[in-house]
Design goal:
This protein is an alpha/beta fold and about 325 residues long. The chain has helices at about 1-25, 35-45, 70-80, 95-100, 135-150, 155-180, 200-205, 220-235, 250-260, 280-295, 300-335, and strands at about 30-35, 50-55, 80-85, 105-110, 115, 125, 190, 205-210, 240-245, 260-265. It is elongated and about 90 Å long.
C-alpha cells in the first residue's frame, strides 16, 4: 500500500516538475553577441529586453587593431548567435571563434549590401557599410530575421520593434540629406584620419580625403599629406575632423599648418560612451552629420583671419612678457 502511494505521489509530482523545468528553459534569454557596438545597439532596439545582447570590441577601441581577450572566448562560447559585419572588418574573429569551441550561428549582417571594392587591393572591400543609413536598414532587417529565427515565440514583438526602428532610420537618412544641402557645394569635403566614411560620402555627396586607408593599420603616405594640404588651400576647406578611435596627432598637425579648425570628433568604428549623444547608432550618425554641417558651413577666410589674429596676440604676449622681465631685472640691478 505504501509503495503504491509513493508511486502515485511520484506521478502527481512529475508533471509539476516538467512544467517548472519547461518554464525555466523558456525564461532563459537567448544570447546574441555582436562584434562591434553599432549593431549591438541595433540588436538591443529590435529585441527590446527579450534577448541578452552583448558585444566584443569595447566602446572607443579600434576594431581594426583589436586583440581579443580571454573574456571574449567565454562570450563567444556562450553565444547562441554572433552578428558579424564581414567585408574584412573583423580580421581577428576567425581565430577567436575556432579557439572558443562555440556552436553559435554566425550571422553576416551585411548580406544584401553591395560592398565598395578597393581600388588598390584585389578582392578587398570597404567594411564600413553601416555609414550609409539605407545600408543600416538592411543590417537591422538581417538582425530582426535572426532574432525571429532564434526565438520565434516573440516574432511579433521583434517585427513591431523593427518597423518602428526602420521608420526612425528613414527619418535619420532624410535628416542627413537635408543637412548636406545646407553646406556650400564647394565645401562638401570631409578630411578625416582614415577612410571610414566612403559609404557616407558616396551616398550623401561628400568628397572624401582620408589620411589612411579603410584600415587604420595602413601607414600615412607623404603623397596623401601633400594632396590633403593642396585640397584645403584650393577649395578653402574651413575644418578637418578627428575620429573617436584614432590618435588625433596628425590631424592636429595639418590643422595648425593650414590655420583652420578641428571641426569636431566624429564616430565611425565605435559608438560613443553613455555620456555622449553618439551612444546609439542613430545618435552617432546624427552627431556626425550635425558636427560636419556646422563646421563646413563656416567661412575659410574668417577662420584664417581669426587664427592669424590669435597667433599675433600670442606673439605680442610673449614680447610683452620678455620686455617686462627685462625692465624688472634692470630696475633690480640699479638698486
Amino acid at each position: 500500500m505504501k509503495s503504491w502511494l509513493k508511486n502515485y505521489n511520484f506521478y502527481l509530482i512529475l508533471p509539476l516538475l516538467f512544467c517548472i523545468s519547461n518554464g525555466i528553459l523558456h525564461s532563459q534569454k537567448i544570447k546574441v553577441l555582436s562584434t562591434a557596438s553599432m549593431w549591438h545597439d541595433m540588436c538591443k532596439v529590435i529585441s527590446g529586453d527579450l534577448v541578452d545582447c552583448d558585444f566584443i570590441v569595447p566602446i572607443g577601441s579600434d576594431p581594426h587593431l583589436y586583440e581579443p581577450t580571454p573574456a571574449d572566448l567565454i562570450k563567444v562560447n556562450q553565444a547562441n548567435a554572433i552578428l558579424i559585419n564581414g567585408l574584412t572588418f573583423e580580421g581577428w574573429l576567425t581565430k577567436l571563434i575556432e579557439n572558443s569551441g562555440t556552436k553559435a550561428k554566425q550571422i553576416f549582417i551585411t548580406k544584401g549590401i553591395k560592398p565598395i571594392e578597393s581600388s588598390v587591393y584585389h578582392n578587398a572591400t570597404d567594411p564600413h557599410a553601416w555609414m550609409d543609413v539605407e545600408n543600416a536598414i538592411i543590417y537591422a532587417e538581417n538582425i530582426y530575421l535572426t532574432l525571429t529565427d532564434l526565438d520565434p515565440r516573440h516574432k511579433d514583438e521583434y517585427h513591431f520593434n523593427f518597423q518602428l526602428y526602420k521608420k526612425e532610420l528613414q527619418d535619420l537618412n532624410q535628416h542627413i540629406i537635408n543637412t548636406v544641402l545646407t553646406i556650400p557645394e564647394s565645401k562638401r569635403v570631409l578630411i578625416t584620419s582614415h577612410d571610414g566614411f566612403r559609404y557616407f560620402g558616396n551616398k550623401y555627396g561628400i568628397q572624401l580625403e582620408p589620411l589612411q586607408g579603410t584600415s587604420t593599420e595602413a601607414d600615412v603616405q607623404s603623397t596623401t599629406l601633400l594632396k590633403v594640404n593642396q585640397v584645403i588651400k584650393e577649395k578653402q576647406i574651413p575644418a578637418i575632423f578627428v575620429e573617436s578611435t584614432i590618435n588625433p596627432k596628425l590631424i592636429e598637425q595639418i590643422q595648425k599648418e593650414n590655420n583652420i579648425i578641428i571641426g569636431g570628433k566624429l564616430y565611425a568604428d565605435s559608438l560613443g560612451d553613455s555620456t555622449t549623444l553618439a551612444s546609439t547608432y542613430i545618435g552617432m550618425m546624427r552627431h556626425d552629420i550635425d558636427v560636419i554641417g556646422s563646421a563646413l558651413r563656416k567661412s575659410y577666410n574668417d577662420i584664417a583671419q581669426h587664427s592669424a589674429v590669435k597667433n599675433t596676440s600670442i606673439y605680442y604676449w610673449i614680447i610683452g612678457f620678455y620686455l617686462i622681465s627685462f625692465l624688472l631685472l634692470y630696475y633690480i640691478n640699479r638698486k
